[in-house]
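agent: user wants the structure for Transcriptional regulator, LysR family from Methylobacter tundripaludum. delegating to structure tool.
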Amino acid sequence: MAKLNNTQVFCRIVELGTFTAVAREMNLSAMMISKYMAQLEESLGVALLNRTTRQLSMTEAGKIYYYRSKQLLDDFSELEEYTSQLGLQVKGTLKISAPIDFGGLYMVPAIDAYQRAYPDVKILMTLHNSQVNLSEGSFDLSILVTDTLDLGVVARKIAQTRLCTYASPDYIAEHGEPQTIAELSSHRCLHYMDTPHKDYWVFNDDGEEVKIKANWHFASNNGRALCQAAALGMGITQAPELSVMNYLEQGKLMEILPAFRIPSLEIYATYLQRRFLPAKLATFVDFLIKYFAENNRLTK
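agent: tool returned. relaying tokens verbatim.
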């Protein structure tokens, strides 16, 4: 256990940068931290750190030992958490990231239902449209609405939605309904910012993906604002169907150019591959899959 403790100290020195910072974090003296490092290097028979009056840096052996030790310590921590939950109530804090529209419209009811089943799990949800790097550790789970996935994450499909083009009946009555993609250039467009397709709208033209740069007059990173603008007759918007369902049901928006609609976008719960998946994460993902299957507006 002494070597495990010394290895933990070494990893924190690398991460925090100084012996003093680690001593402060562990409520120990800097001399004690130095002692732990000396014990570790002596037991290994190799120097792990280069020490100067100005800074610390890892030796080549230190780099190898750190990256392998970090993985082992993470595995050990996950194993402890996993084992402690066996036979006990699922608990802890789950940090999730979700797109603004999907999170605001659909995740809150899902979280409410989940917490009724697992009341000891706290959930911290951050809403934004930027894709997060899960390896940085700020989030346990990221919800993505996408047609492409990065490598290195586990992605489990929880739902799907169509990316369609919409306008209000009033707008169509005044400006006419475009029948081809090319005709959009003469219409006022309402553009959704911060999507994987950047400044472009995407269509399917006889099996071929076509991207056009919309002639937008109003843009936002909030789908609700764009839906409201489209319902007011301000222009044409392209958005996931999940964002406009209520407007469609109320007759305030209608789909246009349906023949050029691209295949459905998948909605994924993504997380890093782990040897021991924490119960709070495993139960939440399983719950989302079941929840959206039963509330099937987003599964067809």
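agent: one observation worth passing along. The domain at 2-84 is CATH 1.10.10.10 (Arc Repressor Mutant, subunit A).
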